[in-house]
Specification:
Aldehyde Dehydrogenase, Chain A, domain 1, Aldehyde Dehydrogenase, Chain A, domain 2, 7-stranded mixed sheet, globular, 2 domains
C-alpha cells in the first residue's frame, strides 16, 4: 500500500456557487432557499483531512412537513404532471446539459464532501448527466397497452405519476444517487422531496441550484437536509407522501418499510449486499485478479454491490491470493484531489470505527489477515483511512463473511467445484450482485443462472448502465431502479374501458 499526499483544496473556491444565508448553506423547498425551521445546523468535514468544510442547515420534522406540503400542492395543482411529456423532457435535457457544463465543479464538490478520488467523481458526474438524458428520452416513449377483449370495448392502459415521492439517498454516491432517484420520478410527472445523506448534501444542493435556474415549477423538486431518523422517518410515515424510495442499509430499510404502512405507500428499497465474486481455476488469471481488486476497493469498498466475498477454486487459490495481496499492497491510498490516488478515505470517523470493529471480529473468529487491517498514519493520520485488507482461511459462519462491512475489507472463501461454489455464493441473507470468472462460457451461464442475485457479471465486475435494471433478491431490497423498470416504479397503471356499443345493459328489469 502506498500513501499519497496532495495540497489541501481551496474550499471556498470549490463551494463558491452554493447559496448561503447568514453563512449557512440552506435547503431548497417550494422554489426557495430556506434555513431550518428550528434553526438547526450541521458542520461538515473533509473525510481525507478531518478539516471542516461547510455549515449546512439541519432540518427537523417541521422542515419535512413543509416540503411535503409544497410537493403535495405542486402535484395536486398539476404544475408539472399536466405538462406535456415533451416539455418535461426538454427541461430534463437542459438539466443534463447544466450538469455536464459544470462537470469539474461537481467532481470537486463530491471529492471534497465524500473523499473519493476525482477519477471516480468524474464518472459519477458523467453518469448522472446521462441518467437525466436517458429518462428525458424515455418520457416521450409509449407507456401503455391495448387489449382485445370479448366485448364491444376499446380497452387499454395508461401510466400516470404516483404523486408525491419521498427519496432518501446515501453518502457513497451523492450526486449519482440523486440522479437515479430524481430523473425517473420527474420524467414520469411526480413531485419529489429528496433527502441526501446528512454527511454529503453539497452536490444535491448544487443540483437544486440548477433546478432553480432552469425555472422548474416551485414544489416539484425539494431538497431537505437532516438526519434520517427525523427527516427521513417523517417522509416515510407521512400519509401525504405516495411513494418512498430509499437506498441504504437493510436495517434502516426495514424501519422505512414499517413507517410506510401509514398509508400503504409504494416503496422501493435498494439495500445491502454481501456479493460473491467467483473465480474458477480456468479463469483468465490477471483479468480475474484485476477485477477482484476493483470489485472491493473501488470507492474504498463503500459500495452496496461490492464484491466483498471472493470465492476462489482450490486449484487456483494459493497462486491467486499471493498475486492479489501483492497488488493490494501497491494500491495508492490518499486524498482524492491527488491525481495519483487510487483509493480514498472512509466517509467518517464513526464509519471507520465500524469497519475497524469488523477487522477485529475477523481476528477474534480465527480468520487469517494477509494484508492491511490498519489505520493509516503519517500524512494521512487526520483522515479516515484504512489500508486495503484481505482475510483468508474464513468459514461461512464468521461475521466478516455474513455481514456487510461496507469498507475495504475482502474475505476469501475456497471452493472445490461448481456445486460448492453455488452453495457458498448463495449462503447469505443478501442477493444484490455477483460475478463469475471462467473461460468456460457454458459453465459461466450455468452458475450465473443459479445465483440468487439481481445484478450479475461474467468476466467483469461493477459496470452499471442507466438502461438496465438495478436491484436485488432477498434482503437486498424491493423493486428495481434504472432502465424502463425504474420509470415504471414511479407510475401507477390505469385501466380504461370505452364502451363502443352505447345502450342500456339490460341487467335489471325495466
Amino acid at each position: 500500500m502506498q500513501a499519497t499526499t496532495h495540497p489541501a483544496p481551496h474550499v471556498e473556491q470549490i463551494l463558491a456557487n452554493l447559496p448561503r444565508i447568514n453563512g449557512v448553506i440552506p435547503m431548497y423547498v417550494d422554489g426557495e432557499w430556506r434555513l431550518a425551521a428550528e434553526g438547526g445546523t450541521r458542520e461538515l468535514f473533509n473525510p481525507a483531512s478531518g478539516e471542516p468544510i461547510a455549515v449546512v442547515a439541519e432540518g427537523s420534522v417541521e422542515d419535512a412537513r413543509r416540503a411535503i406540503a409544497a410537493a403535495r400542492n405542486a402535484f395536486d395543482q398539476g404544475t408539472w404532471s399536466s405538462l406535456a411529456a415533451a416539455e418535461r423532457a426538454a427541461l430534463l435535457f437542459r438539466l443534463a446539459d447544466e450538469i455536464e457544463a459544470h462537470r469539474e465543479e461537481l467532481m470537486r464538490i463530491d471529492t471534497l464532501n465524500n473523499g473519493k478520488p476525482l477519477r471516480e467523481t468524474e464518472y459519477d458526474v458523467v453518469d448522472a448527466a446521462n441518467c437525466f438524458r436517458y429518462y428525458a428520452g424515455l418520457a416521450t416513449k409509449p407507456h401503455g397497452q391495448t387489449f382485445d377483449v370479448p366485448a364491444p370495448s376499446q380497452t387499454f392502459t395508461v401510466r400516470e405519476p404516483i404523486g408525491v415521492c419521498g427519496q432518501i439517498i446515501p453518502w457513497n454516491y451523492p450526486l449519482l444517487m440523486a440522479a437515479w432517484k430524481l430523473a425517473p420520478a420527474l420524467a414520469a410527472g411526480n413531485a419529489c422531496i429528496l433527502k441526501p445523506s446528512e454527511l454529503t448534501p453539497l452536490s444535491a444542493i448544487r443540483l437544486a441550484g440548477f433546478f432553480d435556474e432552469l425555472k422548474f415549477p416551485p414544489g416539484v423538486v425539494n431538497i431537505v437536509l437532516g438526519a434520517g431518523a427525523t427527516v427521513g422517518h417523517a417522509l416515510a410515515e407521512s400519509p401525504l407522501v405516495d411513494k418512498i424510495a430509499f437506498t441504504g442499509g437493510t436495517k434502516t430499510g426495514r424501519s422505512i418499510m414499517q413507517a410506510a404502512t401509514s398509508n400503504l405507500k409504494k416503496i422501493s428499497l435498494e439495500l445491502g449486499g454481501k456479493s460473491p465474486n467467483i473465480v474458477f481455476g480456468d479463469a483468465d488469471f490477471e483479468t480475474a485478479v484485476d477485477y477482484a481488486l476493483f470489485g472491493i476497493y473501488a470507492n474504498a469498498g463503500q459500495v452496496c454491490s461490492a464484491g466483498s466475498r471472493l470465492l476462489v477454486q482450490r486449484s487456483l487459490h494459493d497462486r491467486f491470493v499471493d498475486r492479489l495481496v501483492e497488488r493490494a499492497q501497491k494500491i495508492r491510498v490518499g486524498d482524492g484531489f491527488d491525481p495519483q490516488t487510487e483509493m480514498g478515505p472512509i466517509i467518517s470517523p464513526v464509519h471507520r470505527e465500524r469497519v475497524e470493529g469488523y477487522i477485529a471480529a475477523g481476528h477474534a473468529e480465527g480468520a487469517r489477515m494477509l494484508c492491511g487491517g490498519n489505520r493509516l498514519g503519517g500524512a494521512l493520520a487526520n483522515g479516515n483511512f484504512i489500508a486495503p485488507t484481505i482475510f483468508d482461511e474464513t468459514s461461512p459462519g464468521m461475521r466478516i463473511v455474513q455481514e456487510e462491512i461496507f469498507g475495504p475489507v475482502l474475505v476469501v472463501q475456497t471452493f472445490e467445484d461448481e456445486a460448492s461454489a453455488i452453495g457458498l455464493a448463495n449462503d447469505t441473507i443478501y442477493g444484490l450482485a455477483g460475478a463469475v470468472f471462467t473461460q468456460d462460457i457454458a459453465k459461466a451461464h450455468r452458475v450465473i443462472r443459479k445465483l440468487r442475485a439481481g445484478i450479475t457479471w461474467i468476466n467483469t465486475y461493477h459496470p452499471t448502465y442507466n438502461e438496465a435494471p438495478w436491484g436485488g433478491y432477498k434482503q437486498s431490497g424491493i423493486g428495481r431502479e434504472l432502465g424502463t423498470y425504474g420509470y415504471d416504479a414511479y407510475t401507477e397503471v390505469k385501466q380504461i374501458n370505452v364502451n363502443l356499443d352505447v345502450q342500456p345493459s339490460g341487467w335489471f328489469s325495466d
